[in-house]
Every structure is written in structure tokens, then in C-alpha cells.
Amino acid sequence: MATVCWALTRLRIRRVKCDETKPECQRCTKTGRKCEGYKHVLKSRDQSPAAAASFRNPSFLVVPQKPHPTSIPRNPSRSISPDSAENRSFFFFQTQTLPKWTEFFDSELWSQKILQLSHSEPAIKHGILALSTMHERFESTSPLFSTKTNDFAFVQYMHAVKHSNDLLTAHQEGKIDLEKVLIACIIFTCYENLAGNYRAANMHLRNGMRILRQHKANVSSERQTSAAAESIAHVLYRFDLQAMTFSDNASPYDYGFENPPDCPRVPDVYTRNLDARNDLVGLLRCMMWISGIANINPHAPEHPIWLRIYTELMGSFEKWESAFDKYSCNIPLHEQGDPKIYAGNTLLKMYTIMARTVVLAGAGMRTEMAWDSFVDSFKTIVDLAETIPPSLSRSQTPSEYSTAPTVKRRPSSFSPSFELSPIVPLFLTACRCRDPVLRRRAIAILLNCRRREGVWDSFGAGMVSLQCVKIEEGIDATVDLGPDNWLPLNPECTDGSQVPEIKRVQDVFVSVNMTERQIGVNYLLRSGETVDRYVKF
Question: Polar residues bias located where (predicted)?
């Protein structure tokens, strides 16, 4: 039981949780790290895109009992405003952002419901325009952020925040349904994550999860939940999983017994990969929760809630693998040639292998050498990632002792998403698989794909894992990458077993500065030594 309890503890990028001593917390300074926890206090609240979050109504939590649905156009046009700049931004969202947002799985919530609501709800319209503008800036060389009061993205976001208060008031009066309130929470979370304001994003996510729990508590079990409401809930659950796997100093995940995740009821067979994805996310949330809360409280495994979720999880994960295998062997003919279905199924396989590997390896709690028995599993993860088109297209793999691929690939366009993506399995592979070629293949994919998955940035994850490899293999930090972002092999390290236990990285602590596109990283080695690095992304 203890092995599984701790199995996912080191899957996530970890943070130093501030103890709230001002101006710098003692917990950070005692460990030799720079405390980032109170930088926001020193900044003027109206000089940053994060300022909008401070205008959010803290009562964005109340759930009235009798919402009244309102009509929305079924086929909204691409014209959303008399303003040409707003229409242009909306067109960009439809034609550029949405296809990348839904690269692995279709989403009627994003491609239909939210687009429709953009024509009738100002909070949602302006939130979408802010997201679209942020995406376009990532694609270009324009600065991501501006302190100017007329900055288009910031102005749109401020409009969205202002109208969200009107939305809240209407909801409290029973004039609109819960879905619109939660969609506003989702959009605000997306924007703040793209902007790198993780504290504000975490606040919006926690509010959304709180509203959802209140709603479920007030709805009788006999009452049927709408498909849109279910879709919204699953988006929030995916955001929650991202928050569990990545927490920086400013936004530590709050584990507790008060609101544990629900273990999904897995069917005998799936008919859609969307359902398989939703259940897998639920299982991963349970796995992260039982390990995370046990990491904080050593007596947690004795608690009846912990024992219940652990017991349910163990049976449900095996049942999920069986149900997904049946689905994979009986994919309908009309779906077999669909690249999105293939990409989504491939992604689910990667996450399944990752979860199973972490559990069986015990997350390296007793020894980092435990990962060496799972080279084949790591290879399968990388092989699968290299088959996913188009954003994660195949990178050329050199022979075992070559120094670099011979072809220089073009950098792909930026692909923002708040759904599952290959970033987490590839990051785990790059850091935990000590096979020198496999981990370089994983890093090359991360650096080449330019993808954002909520708080996860593929290039940032690639740079953090790159320094991990350099530290473990004794490569100088200044050694440059070759063509196709390939790290030259170290002739003195041709096999993973040549990386001794004491030189292996067991924990990674990060502090992200999105404005400067910089990550402060503290690597904790098995020997107890710490190494600090700063990486640009």
C-alpha cells in the first residue's frame, strides 16, 4: 500500500510552499532558494494583466436553485461586433485557436456552446477575444504583455471581468443558468494560465470547482445533468489534474480530506474515446490525490476516506485498461482513418503507460535505479509521441552513437490547449529514463512542438529536463543543442546504468516568471546536493 501511496509523488513538478512569512518566507530562504511568494505585493495592482483578477467578485460562489435557460443562436456568424478589431480577433479564434485547442479530442463545448454564447454574453465574448489575442501574440514576436491601459488583450479581459459580475448578479437572481457562470470561470482560468498568472488562475479554478461541488450537493440524484454541464465539469477536472501535476511557488495545490476527487465508474467497454479520456483523468486525479495527501500527512493512509478512494482506484484502473483495450480493438470503420481519433487514442495509451510505470517503479522513492527496469515502457511512450501528427510530428532519431540528426526541422507554430497533451509523459520520460538516446528523443519532441497544456509549456518542460540530463550525465551547462534540438551524446555515458544513484535528480522545484520567460529551477540530487539553474523558454 505504501508503494502505491507514494507512487505519483514525484511525477509532478514540485514547488517550495511558502510559509507566508513576509517579506520572504523562511521555508524558501532556509533551503537557499529565492522566495517568489510576495513579489506580487510589491507591484502596483493596476500595472499587470493579473490585476483583472483582483476585480473578481469574491462571492462568485453562490448557486441559486432555479436557473432559467435563455435562447442562443444555433448558427452564429463570424461577425461578433461592430468593431473590426474584435471581429478579426474572433475570426482568429475560430480559424486558428479552436483547431489547436481541440487537436486530440472534439469538444462541442468549445466549438459550439461557447461560440454561441459569445454572441449573447459579453463576459464570454470579451474573454474569448482576450484568449485569441494572447494566442496570436505567442505566434508572433510581439510582447506577450503590456502595461499600457489600451492593450487590446488586457482591455478585453477587463471587459470580461466587469461583465462577469453582471453575469453573477443575474445568476443569483435566477435569470441565467449555472453553465454560463462556470464557462466564465473556465475562460478566466485559461487566460491567466496563458499569461502566467498562476495564482490568479488557481483562484478561478478553485472557485469553479467550489461552484460545481455546491451545485452537485443541491441537485438530487434523480435529476438528469445536461450534456453541457457534464462537459463543463470534465473541463474543470482536467484543469484540476494539471494543477496537481504542476505547482510553482505562487500556486501550491491544496490537498485535503474535505473535497477528495470522485473515482469514476468505469464501464465494461467504451464506445467513444472521449468517455475513456474523462474516466482516465478521474483516475489520475485520484492517484495524484492519494499520493499528494500522504506526502503531506503520513497518517493519511489510515483515514477512511483515503482507504475508500485507494480501494476504488485499484479496481477501477485495471477495469479501465480492459475497457479501453476492448474499444481499441473494435474502433468503428468510419473512425479508423480519422487522425484526431488516432491522436487521441495514442495520447491515452501514453498516459496509461506513464501511470502504470510510475506505480510499478514506486516513483523512485526507495531508489532512482528502480526506473531502469522500465526502459521499454519509456521507449513506447516516445515511439507513440513521434507518431502523433501534426504538431508533434516525428523528429529524426539518430543512431546510438551519433551526435545529431542530419536534418534541421522547421519550428512548428504555437499550439495552445487546456486539454491533455503529450507534455507530461514526455517530461517524465526525459527526467526518469536514463537511457541517453530515449531521453534526448523526448527532449527534442518537447522543444520542437511549441505546445501549451494549461500550466505546462512544452519548451519550458524541455529546457528543465535538458538541464536535468546535463547534471546527471556530467555535461557542462553551456553545451549547446545541435540541429533539431538534439543534445550531443556524452561518450562517457552510453548507457543509463552509468549514471550513479548519487548523481540522479530526485526532485525538481520551479519558479516561473512568464513576463521574462524564465524558470528558476532547483534540482535536488539523491546525494542531498542541490543545483540551481535558470532556463529561458
Answer: 392-405
Residues 117 and 103: their CA atoms lie apart, in Å, by 22
Handedness of CA 388, 393, 395, 396 (dihedral sign): positive
- Pure H helices in 55-121: 84-92, 98-101, 108, 115-117
Strands 451-453 and 415-417: parallel
Cβ distance 287 to 314 under 8 Å?
Answer: no
Type and span of the H or E element at 519:
strand 518-525
Which residue matches cell numbers 503531506?
Answer: 296
Residue 355 has pLDDT above 90, yes or no: yes
Burial class for 423, CB neighbours closer than 10 Å (0-12, 13-18, 19+): buried
CA distance 423 to 458: 6
For residue 48, give the 3-state DSSP assignment: coil
Alpha-carbon distances of 454 from 73, 152, 277, 457, 479, rounded to whole Å? 29, 22, 17, 8, 30
* CA 463 – CA 191 distance, rounded (Å): 23
**Contact criterion met (CB below 8 Å) for 170 and 181:** no
Longest dimension (CA), the chain: 70
Please, are residues 185 and 53 in contact by the beta-carbon 8 Å criterion?
A: no
Instruction: Please say whether the beta carbons of 412 and 449 come within 8 A.
Output: yes
Neighbours of 218 (CB within 10 A): 12
Contact 98, 155 (CB under 8 A): no
Pairwise CA distance, residues 497 & 475, whole Å: 16
What's the whole-number mean pLDDT along residues 168-188?
89
309-351 pLDDT, tens digit per residue, is: 999 998 999 999 999 999 999 998 888 888 999 999 999 999 9
Q: Say if CB 456 and CB 421 are below 8 A apart.
A: yes
Q: Are 347 and 423 in contact (CB under 8 A)?
A: no
Residue type, 138: F
SS3 508: strand
Q: How far apart are CA 460 and CA 450, in angstroms?
A: 9
| pLDDT exceeds 80 at position 500 | yes
Domain residue spans of the chain: 44-245
Q: How confident is the model at residue 51 (pLDDT cuts 50, 70, 90)?
A: very low
Distance separating alpha carbons of residues 52 and 309, to the nearest angstrom: 38
Q: At what angle do helices 339-361 and 375-385 cross, to 10 degrees?
A: 160
Compute φ and ψ for 381, nearest 5 degrees: -60, -45
Taking the C-alpha atoms of residue 391 and residue 171, their distance in angstroms, rounded to an integer, is: 40
Determine contact, residues 287/313, Cβ cutoff 8 Å: yes
Strands of 451-453's sheet in order across: 415-417, 451-453, 456-457
Shortest CA distance to 295 belongs to which of 279, 306, 280? 306
Q: How far apart are CA 486 and CA 81, in angstroms?
A: 46
**Phi, psi at 390, each rounded to 5°:** -100, -25
Query: Residue 54 belongs to what H/E stretch?
Result: helix 51-54
